[in-house]
Amino acid sequence: MGELVNLKRFKKRNAREQSTREAETNRARFGRSKSERAADERHAQRTNELLDQHRIDDGGAS
Predict the structure, then answer these.
(1) What distance in Å separates the CA atoms of residue 49 and residue 55, rounded to the nearest whole number?
(2) Interval 19-33: pLDDT, tens
(3) Integer Rg of the chain from CA
(4) What is the Cα–Cα distance from 11 to 13, expressed in whole angstroms?
(5) Cα separation, 29 vs 21, whole angstroms
(6) pLDDT tens, residue by residue, 30-51
(7) For the chain, what is the largest distance between any 2 Cα atoms, rounded to a whole number of angstroms?
(8) Could you tell me which of 6, 25, 3 has the C-alpha nearest to residue 14?
(9) What is the DSSP secondary-structure string of 1-62?
């Protein structure tokens, strides 16, 4: 006779494993610290400011 398996335990274990896999995927996609995100935002803002400073306005002449 085969080994008895508790289906509730099996389902819970399966759900935990799937949750762990999903967490690993999310860490890879979104795993940046707050300071890293802030530094990237500051860099992008500074770049945009520099581009705006070097923009040449035609005075509305088209």
Answers:
(1) 10
(2) 999 999 998 888 888
(3) 26
(4) 5
(5) 13
(6) 888 889 889 999 999 999 999 9
(7) 90
(8) 6
(9) -PPP--HHHHHHHHHHHHHHHHHHHHHHHH---HHHHHHHHHHHHHHHHHHHHTPPP-TT--
What are the sequence ranges of the domains in the chain?
A: 7-52
pTM of the complete model beyond 0.70 = no
Q: How far apart are CA 30 and CA 26, in angstroms?
A: 6
Encode burial over 11-38: b for 16+ CB neighbours within 10 A, e otherwise.
Answer: eeeeeeeeeeeeeeeeeeeeeeeeeeee
**Amino acid making up residue 3:** E
Give the type of residue at 22. Answer: E
